[in-house]
């Protein structure tokens, strides 16, 4: 790839050959960009942020997830790490084989890791945390309901996943603000600030580096205790593997889900017809949640090219990065009728908001439960609410997109 371009150096002249994941207009609303690319150049390329390819068609992405090991999952972030972090990661992989399994492992290795964690995220297992999630949502609403206003992202959406995943892991939910800070440092702010990314990763791994041996010696009934005392193919789970998996569960369990809840709150506060319809027709909740997941899919995953691959007119070479744009695929008109509209009662909805194939999100049932409880609990108590200042809404960009400020107002009960 050619010389790297970074944020702020120059504006995008041609999105097909020079896209920028952090362009302010793109972060605010990427849908029109995807539409243009899909029609003109369905697999775009850029040299910014380390360089990458970005497919925008559902069919292409379906094909690419099956291209293993030519498109490897061992490096699922698109922006290259700082040289110091790169050396650290290389040393870890040489010593232990993978960093944060199963997301950083290719088949057949990833299969055993997935089998280990999937039982913790079945619908039945996740439902055990529904009462806690309902209680938490009501407590968060109690804090703001008499004010008549709040930030639906900061005061609500972003408060739920850190505490739920902490409950599952058996760690102090009172440290949720720290977990949030670390997660943003890895997935959001740290993507363009290498030192913050490395520091946040270090804090997470140090935290679990102390927790894992303690739970191995004194197990409880939490997910970490069950994980460290399990086996993979007849062998005990090592501390390094347990730390990596806990790292993944914490980070993946926070940012992606709060982005989905926050996007739904933004949509419903700024689209009064949809909000009123949901309030009057609660039977729509199942299809509405799937539709909001489709329309505002938050996550894109990267793959590293290990051998030459051709898809259409795109030619991937070893060392290239490919950004699997699941959100763009969910707006493909060849798969979805009226793809750029939110259709609350959409019946045919083959969205891939949780990815597709061997790395489909293991925590999808948890994310759905949290989103369902968050929205239904809010509507039960605050069915009328609206966005107060659209200009102050902010969105995080990069590989995980979601609103970070959503100011809303609502009537105060007499």
Short description:
This protein is mainly alpha-helical and 414 residues long. Helix content is 48%, strand content 11%.
Salient structural properties:
mainly alpha; 3-stranded antiparallel sheet; globular; 14 strands; 414 residues
Commentary on this structure:
48% of the residues lie in helices and 11% in strands. By secondary structure, it is mostly helical. Helix 8 (130-142) runs parallel beside helix 18 (364-381) and helix 12 packs across helix 14. A three-stranded antiparallel beta sheet has the order 3-7-10, with no helix packed on it. A three-stranded antiparallel beta sheet has the order 4-14-11. A hairpin with a 2-residue loop joins strand 5 (231-232) and strand 6. The longest helix has 32 residues, at 239-270. Mean pLDDT is 93; it is low at 1-7. The chain has helices at residues 15-18, 24-28, 31-40, 58-64, 83-96, 109-117, 123-127, 130-142, 152-156, 160-169, 176-187, 194-217, 223-228, 239-270, 272-280, 285-295, 326-329, 364-381, and strands spanning 43-46, 52-55, 71-72, 149-151, 231-232, 235-236, 301-305, 309-311, 314-316, 321-324, 386-387, 394-396, 402-405, 407-409.
């Amino acid at each position: 790839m050619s010389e790297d371009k970074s944020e702020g150096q120059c504006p995008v002249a041609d999105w097909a050959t020079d896209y920028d994941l952090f362009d302010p207009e793109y972060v605010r609303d990427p849908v029109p960009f995807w539409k243009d690319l899909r029609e003109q150049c369905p697999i775009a390329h850029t040299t910014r942020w380390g360089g990458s390819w970005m497919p925008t068609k559902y069919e292409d992405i379906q094909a690419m997830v099956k291209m293993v090991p030519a498109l490897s999952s061992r490096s699922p972030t698109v922006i290259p790490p700082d040289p110091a972090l790169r050396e650290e990661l290389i040393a870890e992989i040489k010593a232990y084989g993978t960093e944060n399994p199963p997301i950083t492992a290719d088949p057949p290795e990833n299969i055993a890791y997935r089998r280990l964690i999937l039982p913790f995220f079945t619908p039945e297992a996740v439902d055990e945390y529904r009462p806690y999630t309902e209680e938490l949502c009501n407590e968060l609403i109690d804090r703001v309901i008499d004010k008549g206003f709040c930030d639906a992202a900061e005061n609500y959406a972003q408060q739920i996943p850190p505490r739920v995943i902490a409950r599952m892991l058996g760690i102090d939910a009172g440290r949720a603000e720290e977990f949030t800070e670390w997660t943003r440092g890895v997935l959001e702010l740290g993507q363009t600030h290498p030192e913050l990314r490395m520091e946040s990763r270090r804090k997470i791994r140090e935290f679990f580096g102390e927790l894992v041996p303690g739970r191995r010696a004194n197990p409880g009934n939490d997910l970490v205790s069950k994980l460290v005392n399990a086996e993979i193919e007849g062998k005990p789970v090592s501390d390094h593997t347990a730390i990596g998996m806990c790292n993944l569960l914490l980070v993946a369990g926070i940012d992606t889900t709060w982005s989905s809840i926050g996007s739904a709150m933004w949509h419903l506060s700024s689209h009064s017809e949809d909000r009123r319809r949901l309030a009057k027709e609660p039977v729509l909740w199942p299809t509405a949640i799937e539709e909001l997941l489709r329309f505002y899919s938050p996550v894109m995953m990267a793959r590293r090219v290990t051998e030459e691959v051709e898809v259409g007119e795109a030619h991937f070479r070893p060392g290239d990065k490919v950004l699997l744009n699941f959100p763009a695929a969910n707006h493909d008109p060849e798969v979805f009728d009226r793809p750029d509209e939110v259709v609350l009662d959409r019946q045919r909805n083959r969205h891939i908001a949780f990815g597709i194939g061997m790395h489909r999100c293991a925590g999808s049932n948890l994310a759905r439960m949290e989103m369902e409880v968050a929205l239904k609990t809010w509507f039960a108590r605050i069915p009328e609410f609206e966005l107060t200042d659209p200009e102050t809404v902010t969105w995080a960009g990069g590989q995980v997109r979601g609103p970070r400020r959503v100011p809303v107002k609502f009537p105060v009960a007499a």
